[in-house]
Write a structure and sequence with these properties.
The structure is a homohexamer of 286-residue chains. By secondary structure, chain A is of the alpha/beta class. Chain A has two domains: 5-118 and 271-281, Quinolinate phosphoribosyl transferase, N-terminal domain (Aldehyde Oxidoreductase, domain 3), CATH 3.90.1170; 119-268, TIM Barrel, CATH 3.20.20. Chain A has eleven helices and twelve strands. In chain A, strand 8 (195-199), helix 8 (205-209) and strand 9 (215-219) form a beta-alpha-beta unit. Chains in contact: A-B, A-C, A-D, A-F, B-C, B-E, B-F, C-D, C-E, D-E, D-F, E-F. Chains E and F meet through helix 1, helix 2, helix 4, strand 7 and helix 6 of E and helix 1, helix 2, helix 4, strand 7 and helix 6 of F.
């Protein structure tokens, strides 16, 4: 489930167009057409790689003759100073594509690296770390892939492929019978539809469980209330926790026995991983 | 120079399509078509607003009958707990558009807020805070606008509209006469083209100045070397500093007398500002 | 979950462009610009309506001033000779849009009407009639909506939103342990993913059930084998039947106790319902 | 005049995107990346082939390494159980593309096969079987090609490339002089424009013939009236018959001497031809 | 057959995007948001108007509140100094859209004006002036409309809607029987297809006429040969002349009795008509 | 800074689609699929070549097997009767693509040739010949490249990448202090923004110079006033002349000492250069 080549090409074409709508005037004017370079993608800090296909496509869609070889694969961990990839070809092309290539591989590796930290923090528990829909608009398919590269799991992709009944839906329903409302979802939607219901207080649990949801999301519960809810649900549904999740708190949340912990920060507040392109002019340009 | 309505509509349509490719199955099945809501965009922390037009468009392009009124304008500062906007209309539509609307306004307000911190840190100096090309691919026009909302300035938009000769270009040129190479840029490119040259050592300055650049970028210079370079350039070109810029260091860099300080972190490592949508069911749904 | 206005507009714009790439040369040359018409969409046979929004959009996107009023709503049943809708406006515009409008409403009403016949045939049983992925390429969102208008249910939308392990997958797996393979799906995919497994022989059932699927699809089973399988599954998973389903056989299949009967013919072999546009010139053209 | 590779690629890309917006989660999770398959497209009933290029493109655009060889060409007739094509390559890719490939080749072969039956029915007469504009919106170029594969002829492509004055136009003209109106078409439109006029009563023929149309369309005429009209037109224009055309009636209509018989059912009510993909795992996956 | 609003909007959006990819930095920075203007489109030379809808759309798609009123309609003749249109609204919007608006109305009015000169030159003869396929790529629909505004006629739109057998086709056919080849076109293509055949020597005429073409194109014939050919064809086909057509020669060519004279220069060598936008600041900006 | 392959492909695909929306019915019906041709692009008059990549792409995107070799490169001068390029491949493909290929190479070579005439006329002076924004909408990137091929320089690309304050802006500002207004541009816009100001009277010069513009544009100045202005500006800004520029006047304007002369006619009134495709049937078709 890597993003398809079509998805990759579409993003890269748009990014290249944005970054050079009428060409790279510096490289094309300054450098001879036949100057070539070898460049290395180097890790300036340790992390988990994600985005190699996008990185490669930035060069290939600028100039099909540029070659890119990765020495580390997506989802692999690397130390600082590791040479991640080698790029060779026309100097004009490599320098034109460099920023688009770096912007994407740094961002996605940042997500993968942060995810891996969360996953490591819950080692030994039953809990999955999952993403949310708090992704960069139009880049979701790539950011979800980065979460998987970091060892996390994906949540539903969109509003179309699974039900999530949230506090705002219940507010909008007013004093409707919530159990009946949830059952209607089951009867009208495709049998393949997973139904998850969010609650933010323990006293909401009984009415929700009565409707037979597939997953119950416990939002902003104390650790004590998480434990109580897990015990009460007792396998009748999956249990997801959200809210107040950080690297400092995630292990304790996982220890309550929840099945899933969703972490918005994996994608809504991304730090680009520090990766750089070190360039060596080939002999024939001297 | 706000992003145009066409730019806004194109992004929002793509984001809505991504987030609900075949509809919001929860809201459309669970909620009556005639249920209405009033929702408030509330600041859960202080900051600078950016993205009101995108926020509004997320609702309008989902349902033209939803109304959105902002009580704070883009580029304005707000305290925690401020009600930033009020949204009214069909419950189905508001809940379907909520996540796309929030994802964008939180991200752009995060950029504006961080920029404002950098700008405040250099108050009283001559230095402009500028962005870089380290933006989210395909969202540059919006992220640059967020930098302006935060009081920062924009750098060149792309590889097409200004020259930036970087260390990698000079490496690619080998032992070519750099002064002559830079003069060729001036003679071939449009007279409207600004020519900026990056150096990373003081001893490169003379050859560059001899070519009459419009701006000299001093990358990763010590404060002492920055001062030396500023004195040497002496108004013959604008002076930009980059590298090692943080909220802790920016004031000292500005104090060296540089004209511009470019900060990649403004856009490459964005923390979403904590804004939420509080929803109140209207009476007629009870 | 009606198709969104964006989906509708995109299809209609493409259809109008296909049908009149450089205008309707007959109407625009022959008819005066100010000639107006009133037209009625009339049922030449009984059926279930689907496609009113597309029908309306064909006229509106040709000419925003044309008005369309439906007297019967999508999903409603009508008798032969019923006037389904009235269209008024410029003669040139109505005659230009007529064929696109009819092509779509006839096709979708054909699907809805056939679906309703299958649904009626299983009345009194527990079985849902569902569609398949055998839809017209690029029109799936509309054809699935037509199935719902006819009282049927949708199956998964695509290869992305639910798992269906088919005979060809099992063939491709060779002599891998099928139970283990299925469990891997559960451990790797999002917790919201429904897992359905197809078998075509009773002796495959145990290995599949051992993996805990959400649904078992029994393909081309005899009625006797369907009954045996339903008894054996005994609520541990949903049961879907497919293969050899026709209006003649569906009731007997439903009577075996299966939960779902998927019918490819609902969308792969559509007969356009016979609907026509009867046109009356308005007085002012005489 | 086969659809161009651009037309084919555009349709297939859209269809693949629709059927797997974020990948084939079953095949990609279940099957090893290096598993390969050989599959055969087998006719489960006899017919006329159409759509081989689309079938191939579904695989190629999913994975350029999949190879597809057709043993029967478009427009050729085949018996039940014929192996029409062989597909080889990665199991994941073939299973992902299978449904899109089959949906199109089954639909187009259904059209070609039905067309061939109509063409056979009029063997020995002068009459051409032609399609109409009652095609699936956005797929016209492919469905018209299928009609040609079945031995039929195409009618005008769209409202832009030939004139067809229909009953509704004449109604919209009110009591205008029809002969004069038709002559205006000739004087204003390009000299390359074919002018066809529909009538539904014999008494309309004289006024139409007076204007010198290229073709007269006799809609819903009795056999006797067809014969009368053919005699009266006597070569001064081509004669087309439409309305009430079925496999049962078409031979008698052709025998009246008309030049053209247009059949909406060729494309508006398509039965997918029963073609299936039989899959054999290659040895290396066992 | 004016270009549709969809065609117009698509062109204008692309042109505006090209001319201001990230806004009009001059107007948006220099002028107050509430400054308004009234501008007049003034003819600096006489001519025939074409492009009013494109001119209006340039302003409207920049800013829906700008109003544009034309005092002269497309296809109307005007004298130098005529005020053709009045535009009112926000100064920023009008100045941003001005160049796109002018570029199109000047170009299309240039075509209409030149066409009108050719049409005037053949007054009193039977000959139509027609365009060719030598149009600006992607703007054909607009340039053909300009030819009609100038009183000319259109030729076939494209390679798809009529046959034109040119010298190069005949060369490519080698020593095939040309009459038979032409008859095959008639038997295979839709009955609505007009068949035109180009010859460049009188001695080719018999073989072509034997095939019954709809039009014969005489390319680069002398006036004497044109007369001979017209006499020989004698109404059995339409006669078109091309080659060596200028305002100096066209009357003599028309006098030979040909039905059509096609003029590539109408669109391949367009002089923009001199129209300008005179701007008056509204009082409220002083 | 040649247009990118993506830009080229996008234009050519649109042009081919426009010129053959459902195929080249003449070539595809008339010519055998295996007939091949060799064709030569021949100059019927002397000029400067531009558009070889577009010419090649027209054939390649119609049929990847067609080969195109240019014997003259873009920006090179050629005499009448020069063979510019040789094209070989399937006859159907070459004849289908011919018109699109010629339309573009003739138009762009027309621009390059005219530009070269202007450039030659100012030889020995300091003046650059530049283009303007009076380009064909949506083709600017290609027409600007043609100006460079002719030895001219480009002006700003669009409203986004440089400031040009024109008379209409100043009119819109009313009696605002122009010097202060211009300084605001400098303080708000990116430091890379070139600021050019148009004046049409000598008495406007002082206020403009006081604001420190990068370039002053003197519009419609007499030669005497040009000389006066050049003397007064004295190197404090670049000086551009516009208005009343023709091949007859340009040398005198250049002699006044201006740095730049912008010529709208380079692109707003293009005469296609007379280039033709001479076709030789290959032996194997005889």
């Amino acid at each position: 489930m890597k993003p398809s080549q079509n998805d990759i090409d579409r993003l890269i074409r748009a990014a290249l167009e944005e970054d050079a709508p009428w060409g790279d005037i510096t490289s094309q004017t300054l450098l001879p057409a036949d100057a070539t370079l070898t460049a290395q993608l180097v890790a300036r800090e340790s992390g988990v790689l994600c985005g190699s296909d996008l990185f490669r496509a930035a060069f290939t869609l600028t100039d099909p003759k540029v070659t890119t070889h990765f020495h580390v694969a997506d989802a692999e961990t690397f130390a600082a100073n590791t040479i991640l990839a080698t790029v060779s070809g026309a100097a004009r092309s490599i320098l034109q594509a460099e920023r688009v290539a770096l912007n994407l591989v740094q961002r996605l590796s940042g997500i993968a690296t942060l995810t891996a930290q969360y996953v490591a923090a819950v080692t030994g528990t039953n809990a999955r770390i999952t993403d949310t829909r708090k992704t960069t608009p139009t880049l979701r398919i790539f950011e979800r892939y980065a979460v998987r590269c970091g060892g996390g799991h994906n949540h539903r992709f969109s509003l179309s492929d699974a039900v999530m009944v949230k506090d705002n839906h219940i507010a909008a329903l007013g004093n409707t019978d919530i159990t009946a409302a949830l059952r209607r979802l089951r009867s009208e939607l495709p049998h393949t539809t997973h139904i998850e219901v969010e609650i933010d207080r323990l006293d909401q649990l009984d009415a929700v469980l009565a409707a037979g949801p597939d997953t119950v999301l416990l939002d902003n519960f104390t650790l004590a209330d998480l434990r109580t809810a897990v015990a009460k649900i007792a396998g009748k549904a999956l249990v997801e926790a959200s809210g107040g999740v950080s690297l400092a708190t995630v292990a304790a949340i996982a220890a309550t026995g929840v099945d899933l912990i969703s972490v918005g920060a994996l994608t809504h507040s991304v730090s680009a991983l520090d990766l750089g392109l070190d360039i060596h002019a080939d002999r024939n340009i001297a």
